[in-house]
Amino acid sequence: MAEYLQYDWRLEKIVPEPPPRSEPQDKTLSVQALRTMIQQSTDLELKNNVSHDDKTLLKFLFARKFNIPDSYLLVQNYYYYRKKNHVIFENFTSTAPDIKNALESSLPGVLPSKDRKGRCVLILNATNWDCDYSLISIYRAILLSLDHLVNEVHNQARGFVVIVDWTEFSFRQSTNLKPSILKLMIEGLQDCFPAKFKGIHFIGQPWYVEAALTFIKPFLKEKIKERIFVHGNNLSTLHDYVHKDILPAELGGEQPSYNPEIWIKTLRGE
User: Fold this and answer.
1) Sign of CA dihedral 143, 147, 152, 158
2) What would the pLDDT profile of 112-168 be if each residue is shown by its tens digit?
3) Alpha helices for the chain (secondary structure H)
4) What does the pLDDT look like over 62-83, one tens digit per residue?
5) Angle formed by the axes of helices 179-186 and 135-149, nearest 10°
6) In angstroms, rounded to a whole number, what is the distance separating the alpha carbons of residues 118 and 158?
7) Distances (CA, A) of 155 to 16, 119, 147, 201, 218
8) What 3-state class would DSSP assign to 174?
9) Cα(150)–Cα(157) distance, rounded to whole angstroms?
């Protein structure tokens, strides 16, 4: 494992999560406080274009543990990120050819069962990426999936775990991990999307992927850095975090191999 130590990712160490901050019993007061902050904002563009309904505002409140100023900042970031990067969200459906290709390659996939802490688990099988479509297409598929998933209050409250399988990911494929796009993805998911990422796990990562990913570290908040774990080829340490009873066979789990069509049908409402 020494080859990975120089990159200072977290390695095979179980660290208990701090107890979750208690949520307010009456969430309507928090929703109204956030709505009032938006309505009283001097940012007329934001005030006139952001949805103020309870369901929308709750997503941002859960993502920032019901801290009203932080939730308001997230609303701002979300709106202006999507405005600035509007091309990402054009033809933003599961039938868009590039998104469809990514989803069919499990980029991402969504496991049907939650982990033992009730968190939704996303998987990305990087080896399946044939590079005929860009990293932006994978990002679009991730955002579309998350847009759907955060409509569930359970997912808002418990958050998400992401597993990226780099096994057999080639050096040629790694040249398509464009730094500018990786930075765009980090900005969008970390600072501009109403979701809590509770763990990000890398398995089977070759040295050149590890090296490429060092680019993103300066853009990661300390809390996110602490939630990134690299396991190499040691699946048993992954199973310490995400038990194999919900994982597909290719991740050393007890479930059948992942079938991307199930998630695709869910996104289509079938």
Assistant:
1) positive
2) 999 999 999 999 999 999 999 999 999 999 999 999 999 999 999 999 999 999 999
3) 2-5, 27-39, 44-49, 54-63, 68-84, 97-104, 135-149, 153-158, 171-174, 179-186, 207-213, 222-225, 235-241, 260-267
4) 999 999 999 999 999 999 999 9
5) 10
6) 6
7) 20, 7, 11, 18, 28
8) helix
9) 9
Question: What's the CA gap between 80 and 75, in Å, rounded?
Answer: 9
Give the global pTM. Answer: 0.90
57-93: string of b/e by CB count within 10 Å (b at 16+)? bbbbbbbbebebeebbebbbbbbebbeeeeebeeeee
Task: Please choose, from the candidates 123, 73, 151, the residue with its C-alpha nearest in 3D space to the C-alpha of residue 251.
Answer: 123
Instruction: Extract the tokens encoding 82.
Output: 């999507």
pLDDT interval class at 32 (50, 70, 90): very high
- State the Cα–Cα distance between residues 163 and 203, nearest whole angstrom: 8
